[in-house]
Design a protein that fits this description.
Largest sheet: 5 strands, mixed
Number of strands: 9
Strand content: 15-25%
Radius of gyration: 14 Å
Structural class: alpha/beta
Length: about 170
């Protein structure tokens, strides 16, 4: 499997490294846009695509999440759940999901602020936001693909497609 990692080194916290391919994915529990708890471990037996994004309602983030929304069958065909995570509150996440028609979970890494993004090494403490990090996790909870793009650079859906194809449908 190809591993794509791009870093904006100055923005990544030095304390927590980005999990690499072959590492166990850090466990987490966050609330979704409806206030329901979502645990990564609840998805054992399925692939999971964890997409960290800076903020709801921002331009590049909306473009990326709309591309996922418009190609959700790609993820479903790979037996993959999409979990999109930002530091916004569940209230902002719900308004954002309703406005854009997102049918996947938007998770609020609101408090403690950015704790899950920090655990994945993609929290920028200087700006108080998550970087554009994506982690594709297999059905056993192992990271199989990682990309962290610099601020202002959208991720490539084609890379997701290739990484998911390498996992199979489990």
């Amino acid at each position: 499997m190809t591993q794509a990692v791009q870093h904006e080194a100055a923005a990544l916290p030095a304390v927590t490294p980005v999990p690499g391919v072959g590492d166990s994915a850090p466990e987490f529990e966050l609330v979704n846009q409806y206030g329901e708890p979502v645990r990564l471990s609840d998805f054992r037996g399925r692939n999971v695509v964890v997409v960290f994004y800076p903020f709801a309602f921002s331009g590049i983030c909306t473009g990326e999440l709309c591309e996922i929304r418009d190609n959700l069958a790609l993820f479903e065909d790979a037996n993959a759940a999409v979990l999109a995570v930002s530091v916004d509150s569940k209230f902002a996440q719900r308004a954002y999901a309703e406005k854009e028609g997102y049918d996947f979970d938007l998770l609020a890494d609101f408090w403690p602020h950015g704790a899950v993004a920090s655990a994945y090494g993609v929290f920028d403490a200087d700006s108080g936001m998550a970087l554009r990090g994506t982690f594709i996790i297999d059905a056993a909870g192992i990271v199989r693909y990682v990309v962290v793009n610099p601020r202002g650079q959208a991720r490539d859906l084609g890379e997701y497609r290739a990484a998911l194809a390498g996992l199979g449908g489990n």
